[in-house]
Amino acid sequence: MMSNEVLVEAIDGVALITLNAPDRRNAFTVPMAEEFITVLRDIDADRSVAATVLNGAGVDFCSGGDLATLTAVGDEPFSEDSWSGLRTIYDSFVTFGSIATPTIAAVHGGAVGAGLNLALAATLRVVAHDAKLMSGFLRIGIHPGGGHFHLLERYVGQDTAAALSIFGEQLNGDDAVRLGLAWRAVPQESVLETAMEMARRIRRNPDLARAALRSWRTESRASTDWAAAVDIERLPQLRTLWQKSHTQ
């Protein structure tokens, strides 16, 4: 049953997805991730959609994984439910990063932890000047997950990736543009419209937009596969979730 935590509407050949869980800063639960995957598959199947824009309801873009969900995983990290639940959340992000249409993340407020992963999964990012982009995993005592290092190093050098993921640096939107993590920084009230305006530019020929994206992905693919990076990080993240749960 759909929970309406992932909304979608078609506007002028553009699929606008809204993460609609503002009470928890659009943090992902397993049901929300399942809903997200369903929405993305529907977009994939609709050949009239030329581009997809993702934004978040409320004050933040996405704060990553729901803390209650992560706490439950930490209680029994190696159970089948924990393993598959965390996998479903990260699979939803990988699905977003691999759908057939070009994607734009319209980022306002926080894109934190796995929420930063989600923003980086998009083809392009438009951010608010005062957006807050941060890794945040180590700050709450857990190992990064979801292919976090892989996604960062798609766009920035090792120093910037280490500063964010290991040493806890935080970026605003202007920093993100300067470092190559985003295309444009605009006032918060203009983020969504700027993203939609860019998406509308390619609406007249959805097939061409999809073909161009396939070529772009093939030619720019990193040497380490993202799905493999997710697997590399899963075990140490589960271990730290267990340690965090059992030392409180």
TrEMBL record:
Gene3D superfamilies tied to this protein: 2-enoyl-CoA Hydratase, Chain A, domain 1 (3.90.226.10)
SUPFAM superfamilies noted in UniProt: ClpP/crotonase
Name of one Pfam family that matches: ECH_1
Family statement: Belongs to the enoyl-CoA hydratase/isomerase family.
Protein name (record): Unannotated protein
Taxonomic placement: unclassified sequences, metagenomes, ecological metagenomes
